């Protein structure tokens, strides 16, 4: 469970990072769009001023063209207004407005009194204006490059987060599947195999071999344990009993909870070895400390599989042997051929 919680925490953090990255990408995209608007507005002002100067110097004055420059400058101010980072752009916008006011005055004076001096002044003022316009364009391009670099970096981080999240989700899926498979085949309290898996295991085992023995065991006076010490103590006894027996078994043998305090051990050994296991289990449980201030014992019944018979018959003989152990004084094992 700790592993699954860790994977869920990491997945949640990655999802938060992905969300933050997506929000920041949207933020950068909005600024890139505004940069495009700024560039368009500056180019519009530049083109309008250039055309106005050209027409005035060609002695074809037009108030509409001058008004058009004012409109373009207003569009530039609007494009610069929305975000604080455009403080430099707004400064440039003010400078362009100031240069245009100077150039406009020169154009008006030239209209009233055309002369080479005013003509040179117009050329100088228009050159200053175009220099500022180019500077403004350079500022916007710099901002665009910076935002583009940020965009690429965040996109790179987003890609890494997505890849990591996919890996985490993949491992989480495997972990969940493994746990589902485990708990579908095991008792959730004792983690011993459950009854369903027991019969499935026996069917598969007997398809490959015929040597198999069954040990059925039951905790002696388990009801008294629950009545005297409570069900929590009873659950502890069940779990420790399974752990104790599992330490005695090798990887080829299993223990399954058959029901209540009754368990079945499946051995891939002959009857003689099964009796050795039964004695070892009986002694190991009797010598274990279950924290009750009194010993816990088990009674066991042993039977060997007879080739060709239904496995239910083998289990039934082990159950009869278990009954014999109970009626013979408990804390012992019996064999039923």
Would you mind describing this structure in some detail?
By secondary structure, the chain is α+β, with helices and mostly antiparallel strands. Helix content is 72%, strand content 9%. Helix 1 (2-57) packs parallel to helix 3, helix 1 (2-57) runs antiparallel to helix 4 and helix 7 packs across helix 8 (271-287). The mean pLDDT is 85.
Proportion of helical residues: over 70%
Mean pLDDT: 85
Structural class: alpha+beta
Report how far apart the termini are.
44 Å
Shape descriptor = rod-shaped
Strand order of the largest sheet: 2-3-1-4-5
Order of helices and strands: HHHHHEHHEEHEHE
The largest sheet is: 5 strands, mixed
Q: Give me the number of helical elements.
A: 9
How many β-strand runs? 5
Residues in β-strands, percent: 5-15%
- Rg estimate, integer Å: 45 Å
Q: Spans with pLDDT under 50 lasting ≥5 residues?
A: none
């Amino acid at each position: 469970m700790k592993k699954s919680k860790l994977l869920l925490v990491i997945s949640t953090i990655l999802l938060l990072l992905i969300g933050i990255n997506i929000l920041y990408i949207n933020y950068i995209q909005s600024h890139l769009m505004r940069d495009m608007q700024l560039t368009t507005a500056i180019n519009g002002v530049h083109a309008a001023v250039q055309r106005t100067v050209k027409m005035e110097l060609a002695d074809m004055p037009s108030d509409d063209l001058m008004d058009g420059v004012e409109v373009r400058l207003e569009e530039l101010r609007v494009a610069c207004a929305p975000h604080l980072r455009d403080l430099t752009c707004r400064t440039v916008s003010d400078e362009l407005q100031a240069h245009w006011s100077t150039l406009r005055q020169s154009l008006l004076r030239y209209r009233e009194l055309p002369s080479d001096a005013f003509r040179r002044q117009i050329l100088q003022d228009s050159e200053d204006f175009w220099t500022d316009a180019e500077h403004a364009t350079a500022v916007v391009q710099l901002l665009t490059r910076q935002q583009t670099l940020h965009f690429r970096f965040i996109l790179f981080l987003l890609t890494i987060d997505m890849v990591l999240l996919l890996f985490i989700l993949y491992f989480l899926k495997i972990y969940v599947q493994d746990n589902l498979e485990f708990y579908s085949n095991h008792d959730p309290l004792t983690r011993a195999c459950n009854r369903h898996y027991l019969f499935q295991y026996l069917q598969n085992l007997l398809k490959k071999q015929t040597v198999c023995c069954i040990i059925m065991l039951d905790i002696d006076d388990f009801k008294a344990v629950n009545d005297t010490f409570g069900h929590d103590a009873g659950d502890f006894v069940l779990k420790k009993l399974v752990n104790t027996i599992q330490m005695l078994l090798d990887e080829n043998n299993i223990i399954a909870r058959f029901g209540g305090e009754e368990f079945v051990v499946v051995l891939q050994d002959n009857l003689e070895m099964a009796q050795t296991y039964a004695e070892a289990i009986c002694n190991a449980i009797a010598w274990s400390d279950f924290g009750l201030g009194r010993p816990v014992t088990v009674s066991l019944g042993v039977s060997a599989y007879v080739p060709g018979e239904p496995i239910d018959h083998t289990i039934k003989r082990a159950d009869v042997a278990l009954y014999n152990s109970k009626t013979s004084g408990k804390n012992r094992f019996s064999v039923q051929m």
